[in-house]
Design goal:
By secondary structure, this protein is mainly α. 86% of the residues lie in helices and 0% in strands. The protein has 19 helices and no strands. The chain has helices at residues 2-37, 40-61, 64-73, 79-107, 112-124, 126-140, 144-167, 172-196, 206-240, 243-277, 281-318, 324-334, 337-352, 356-385, 388-410, 418-439, 446-463, 469-480, 484-494. Helix 5 packs parallel to helix 8 (172-196). The relative contact order is 0.12. Residues 481-495 have low confidence and may be disordered.
Length: 495
């Protein structure tokens, strides 16, 4: 069972991972194109617009992106009605979201130009909203390859369109419009794939609509709490630090989003299997152990890489002389990446066992404590050190510790075993063993640091047994196997 579960997880991760490698490269190029064309203050405005539109998109989604995968993965026969009902809710919620976005922007004191850009960003996101119910079906069927290809194509189209628009003198308006071009491409790919897989859509059903609204409410509350954090951060930084710091922080968020994306990929890849295993605590523990090991290896790698190469990453993306302070924010955030990844895993487990309301309450409490401490400390940090963004990421990381403890209390007893907990410690030790010696070798330059980093991290991970010999044997077996996909699909059906 462990082998089948791990094979299925690795197969899903490999598809999403290959897509993410391409999408990450495209995302980095897009960030560089935008960052070199716009000033820090303009980057801050773009980040503000995206934060507000992301917040109202949570209302449009209403928890469907998670709930639909969970239900479809268990083999519900009314999937066409689920998709049709989800699409109806999304169209109605989109209309409502325009009004909510205007209210939020006005309450926060933004002018009419920012309001217009925000509405444009919401309109640009409509195609990806319509794609989501079909994407949930792809994921539930373990067809992560379709998800990866659709999103990769969307990113590629966005990059090309944005580069062309900026080359001919475009600004923020054109950047936002080009996001819509990429999203339309993703929707087209999804529609074609759904037709080939015979994924049907039936008219909305009243009971199903009510089910999605009722079951999605706790997830939406949880997601709204998380989505509110970025523009609350913007509000704090605007009031206590100034527009340049908002720009530095917005650049940090863009880079950190790329770095933390492996956690989302892994959780997305494992979520169907977690949902199927949630009916049996031994099975759930088995899947948790497998997911946790891969997740924490990724966390150790991301944390070490971000701490060591933050200056280089910022210089490559944004050039020299404008965003140096972003690198300082990145290095501080790197310390908390393993903790963040582990907490995300615990949250996914809590949701799969049906404790949605508990998850929402815990996250609302976490955000409240975080914002209260930020309001007290950001201004002081800005005056003393000149970069209030560092205070934000430090407070967020510290608050993650009691959040993790609370999550562990509500995870079913025995699901998170000693192996997973020990891997958290191994993750930090492996990162420390990689960072400390290489920090003293920074003058060598990237040409020598990168191969040394890969070698030292691999040795540290194996010595600490974060990566075990059995993991390596399994990876080599999977790489050689030509029958991986049929075996994984059979395992998914039997599971």
């Amino acid at each position: 069972m462990r082998s089948n579960t791990t094979r299925l997880l690795v197969r899903n991760v490999s598809h999403l991972g290959m897509g993410q490698v391409a999408s990450t490269a495209l995302g980095i190029l897009l960030t560089a194109v935008i960052g070199r064309a716009l000033e820090p203050a303009q980057v801050g405005i773009l980040y503000t617009v995206c934060a507000i539109s992301s917040f109202v998109y949570v209302i449009v989604d209403w928890g469907q992106g998670t709930y639909l995968v969970k239900e479809m993965a268990t083999g519900r026969i009314d999937e066409p009605g689920l998709i049709g009902s989800a699409l109806l809710i999304r169209m109605l919620m989109t209309i409502l979201s325009f009004a909510i976005a205007v209210i939020i922007a006005r309450v926060l004191g933004y002018d009419g130009q920012i309001v217009a850009w925000t509405l444009l960003a919401i309109a640009a996101a409509v195609p990806i909203s319509l794609f989501t119910p079909f994407d949930c079906s792809f994921r539930a069927k373990d067809r992560m390859d379709i998800d990866a290809f659709a999103n990769m194509l969307g990113k590629a189209m966005t990059l090309v369109a944005t580069a062309i628009a900026l080359y001919f003198g475009g600004g923020l308006t054109e950047v936002i419009l080009m996001l819509g071009v990429g999203n339309i491409s993703t929707l087209v790919v999804g529609a074609i794939a759904a037709q080939r897989l015979d994924i049907a859509v039936k008219p909305p059903v009243r009971m199903t609509v009510w089910e999605l609204l009722r079951q999605g409410a706790p997830i939406a509350a949880f997601s709204l709490a998380i989505a509110s954090q970025p523009f609350l951060e913007i509000l704090l930084l605007s009031a206590l630090a100034g527009p340049a710091v908002v720009g530095w922080y917005g650049a940090f968020r863009s880079i950190f989003g790329v770095v933390s994306s492996p956690a989302l990929i892994l959780l997305g890849a494992s979520f169907p299997e977690l949902s199927r295993a949630s009916l049996s605590m031994p099975d759930l523990r088995r899947v948790t152990d497998a997911t946790g090991r891969v997740l924490l290896v990724t966390a150790a790698l991301a944390s070490s890489m971000l701490y060591l190469f933050a200056d280089h990453i910022v210089a490559i993306l944004y050039g020299h002389g404008r965003f140096e302070q972003t690198a300082s924010i990145l290095r501080v955030s790197a310390v908390f990446i393993p903790l963040l990844f582990f907490t995300c895993l615990l949250g996914a487990i809590i949701f799969t066992v049906g404790r949605n309301k508990t998850l929402a309450v815990l996250n609302i409490a976490r955000i409240a404590v975080y914002m209260a401490l930020s309001w007290l400390l950001v201004g002081y940090w800005q005056q003393r050190f000149g970069n209030g963004g560092i205070a934000l990421v430090t407070i967020a990381g510290v608050v993650e510790i009691p959040a993790m403890i609370a999550y562990l209390i509500y995870v079913p007893r025995g699901v998170v075993g000693s192996t997973t907990m020990l891997n958290v410690l191994r993750c930090y030790i492996a990162s420390l063993c990689t960072v400390v010696p290489l920090s003293m070798l920074q003058p060598l330059g990237l040409l020598y640091l990168i191969p040394l980093f890969v070698l030292l991290f691999a040795v540290s991970a194996m010595v600490t047994r974060l990566i075990s010999p059995s993991d390596l044997r399994l990876a080599m077996d999977i790489a050689r196997s030509r029958m991986l996909a049929p075996q994984a699909m059979k395992s998914a059906r039997e599971g």
